[in-house]
Design goal:
The structure is a homodimer.
Chain A lengths: L1 H8 L9 H11 L3 E3 L6 E3 L1 H20 L3 E2 L5 E3 H4 L3 H7 L4 E6 L2 E9 L4 H11 L8 E10 L14 E11 L2 H22 L5 E4 L11 E8 L4 E12 L1 H5 L4 E2 L5 E2 L2 E8 L1 H10 L16 E5 L6 H14 L6 E2 L7 H10 L4 E5 L1 H6 L1 E6 L5 E5 L3 H26 L1 E3 L3 H9 L3 E6 L3 H10 L4 E2 L2 E2 L20 E8 L1
Parallel strand pairs in A: 3-7, 11-24, 15-16, 15-17, 20-21
Antiparallel strand pairs in A: 1-2, 4-6, 5-6, 7-8, 8-14, 9-10, 9-23, 10-11, 11-14, 12-13, 17-18, 18-19, 21-24, 22-24
């Protein structure tokens, strides 16, 4: 039984050889997610959803500390409202799923299953807002949205239904709104780097790549090990466009009517694809320890007459370490080796092995998931030791990912460099005219490279700097790459 | 300004005179929810959603303690899967909303927006289940569902979209499954009574009123002050019907294939309608204190030169009471009286008033929302006093609701009693033949009374007992009433 199942559960593809196949196996075999019976949609299984719940818990604390409150808006949006903001409607229409019938009747107006909720939330803002004293209004919702992708779908990375948070805030002044657009972007950066151990570049999108209806879209972008960029979160400065389309106004201190300024910001379960792909290896899932639902798995080595004593000790340890939400695997039908493989595949950060000799010595063998390092630790020291090991794992994963990002980033002095960089699956930094036509040409000539973002921390353009492609005066520094 | 707004925000309808209007005003003016622009759908505003989040937090702990894990399943269900279980499909079809188009294309198969997720989750069970060692499998999801009601919709109580949790579990044996069906029913009873202070009757539905596809549906029913019953949560013993329709099987210890036994259970945002209606009064919302997001509001009485000192003390108190998530209302543009009305309307359980004399004496005035009782309390005693007041409020609300339930329950000895009881808006207990035809007749003759449930704790039927309507031998004791 054990060997048969082992063959079944192990990851058979190699990350460095066939990343898409490897990634799908990790998601399926670590039981994180699976495809649903609706083409392009997915089911998030309990192991995956527990990670999402931890992300929610962390981020709810963050947004509540900034005065944002959760709410729930309708799943369905009437077509007429959806179309009020022209650019927005144009951008999203190709991927909207429509409810047209209910029970036995045809509906008078088609209802969009929300691909995003700006239009509907603006209708609520209009009801809620009277005077400057009501501002700012800051709401967020956790929900799923539908975008009818026509490209091949992938678990987490691109699915027709995905889960996300969408924050929507309106402010009295442009400055406040713009500042908070950046505030939430920075919260995404902290989430990615401090919690998920995934280094990101914070920047602003071009007009071509921005959110449909935004003035500016800010993004945090991560580089995956296959050289494709992944958007980990976006924060949109929406200005007053939606406010005007939906006639959202307030009575100002000056006793005149004004339009507020609007931002929206979100991250989705795509980000889970990013954290899985960044850290995991050929044994399976490697979870950044701060987001891991179970930090520890305890595996007693069950041998003959000692079994009862060992199980008892393992149970004591489980109780003792409850703050780390430990698992105890005392199933008798599997060998210790089989269990090691299984829990490595499922990404538990720390394994504690305990055998007859360990019981005698009041110790366990502590094994790290990221490096495989083993260490004997006295049971009484575990509570102090574990947080240190977890921190060290976080550090190690982050530094590894950061090194990869650095190694795979090149600066292109001319168009030859850019083409070569993209061919070699690099993230390419270059000076750029920031014109959509030029952006289109670059995409065509590189067979698919798009602009990722203009990094906020490096925009030193000097007199005489030229665009990497068209040689017109450069307006910005920007990253190019292929992307998910 | 203040008087103008006061007129705008107060509740103008009386609970005892026009309950539907009063209820809607409480929901709107306490900013709990509002109608969305999609007919029959609603938006849960932050004040309402914070209550729902507390319910989620409480109930997540409960279900996790029973080994249930959260997951996320698809919003859309292919028509062919939806129709696999015949009774289920028949029951839900009249109220399903259908996605038929996406982008510019017509879909080949209609997709149901989930009205409930049994069919889809069975497809996952089929993938996950191999042997008896995989059982039980217990999952839950928090999501919204759509049921295209044709009756007039009401905030929380009957809306086309509502939010809920749906638990789905499969077990090796019938006994285990049946026991846990009751286990989760009892958890609903505890939630209603111990957290929401709403007494409920736990019982089983008739075949006519059960969930489409269930063997038996268990329910907890509350009686609203207008004499209508409200279902607060249901737990369905589904037997093996869905398992057979979806070919969900496992290899047993006997090396043969078996069908597992299935239960599902849920409570929804309807229950929020129940808790609002049960306790609230003509001043507005009264929240059961254990679920109230903010237990305390602090209102400094701002007078002339003392203002600064009072605000400082109020801020200290806020800090000191942080475990109760207190609000501090130090807005200068409103009078204390206006603020009292506002926070009473919004249902904050405890108000602390602090004026110049109180600062001198290191005390506050503590006012209970339920009784309006006032008490001087030393600031140093607040941390001890507040939990006692909250417990006493819970007790008071529960006893009041229980008294109402008792006063409004009558036993019908004959059909005349039953008709009279229903006319007088009572919950009527009677002996019943438990036949659908008789149930239909009673509904017609009473202009709408339905069977609510057969109470689990009182089923003493004796030889010779007759049905309250048809006089055939009685099979059970059951409650009748009108309902939401």
């Amino acid at each position: 039984m054990a060997t048969e199942e082992k063959k079944d559960v192990g990851i058979t593809a190699k990350k460095e050889e066939d990343m898409p196949e490897w990634f799908e196996q990790v998601c399926l075999k670590a039981e994180l997610a699976e495809f649903s019976d609706v083409k392009g949609c997915m089911v998030i299984r309990p192991n995956g959803y527990a990670i999402w719940e931890n992300l929610q818990e962390y981020f709810n604390k963050v947004i509540k500390s900034h005065g944002v409150r959760n709410a729930a808006f309708s799943l369905l949006i009437p077509e007429s409202y959806f179309k009020k903001e022209a650019e927005h409607a144009k951008g999203f229409s190709p991927e909207v799923a429509w409810v047209t019938e209910a029970g036995d009747s045809k509906l008078e107006e088609r209802l969009a299953v929300r691909p995003t909720s700006e239009t509907l939330i603006c209708k609520s803002f209009k009801k809620w807002l009277r005077s400057y004293r009501d501002l700012p209004i800051r709401v967020n919702q956790w929900c799923s949205v539908l975008r009818w992708e026509t490209k091949q779908t992938k678990l987490f990375l691109r699915s027709r239904e995905f889960w996300w948070q969408e924050g929507h805030c309106i402010y009295e002044t442009k400055e406040e709104c713009a500042n908070e657009t950046i505030l939430f972007l920075n919260e995404y950066k902290k989430l990615c780097e401090n919690i998920l151990a995934v280094p990101v570049i914070a920047g602003v999108k071009t007009q071509k790549e921005k959110f449909a209806g935004a003035v500016d879209t800010y993004t945090v972008e991560a580089l995956m090990p296959d050289g494709k960029a992944l958007q980990m979160g976006t924060s949109h400065f929406l200005g007053q466009g939606f406010m005007k389309s939906f006639e959202v106004q307030f009575l100002g201190k000056d006793e005149k009517m004004h339009y507020p300024f609007y931002n929206s910001w979100g991250f989705s379960t795509r980000l889970m694809g990013g954290l899985i792909m960044s850290h995991s290896d050929n044994k399976g899932l490697v979870l950044p320890p701060r987001i891991a639902p179970n930090k520890v798995v305890i595996i007693p080595i069950l041998i003959g007459k000692e079994t009862e004593k060992i199980v008892k000790k393992a149970e004591e340890i489980k109780e003792h370490l409850s703050e780390f939400n430990p698992l105890l695997d005392n199933r008798e039908e599997y060998t210790p080796g089989w269990k090691y493989n299984e829990w490595e595949m499922k990404g538990i950060p720390i394994r504690l092995e305990i055998g007859p000799k360990d019981v005698e010595k009041d110790q366990v063998v502590l094994v790290r998931r990221d490096t495989g390092e083993k260490d004997f630790v006295k049971i009484e020291d575990l509570k102090k030791k574990i947080p240190k090991v977890l921190d060290s794992m976080h550090e190690n994963l982050f530094l590894k990912a950061q090194k990869l990002l650095k190694q795979n980033t090149v600066v292109a002095k001319d168009f030859g460099d850019l083409v070569k960089g993209i061919r070699e699956k690099k993230l390419v930094k270059a000076k750029f005219c920031n014109e959509t036509e030029c952006e289109d040409w670059i995409k065509e000539k590189t067979e698919g490279a798009t602009t990722r973002c203009m990094p906020l921390d490096d925009q030193k353009i000097e007199e005489g700097d030229q665009c990497v492609h068209c040689k017109k005066p450069a307006k910005c520094i920007i990253y190019f790459s292929k992307s998910y």
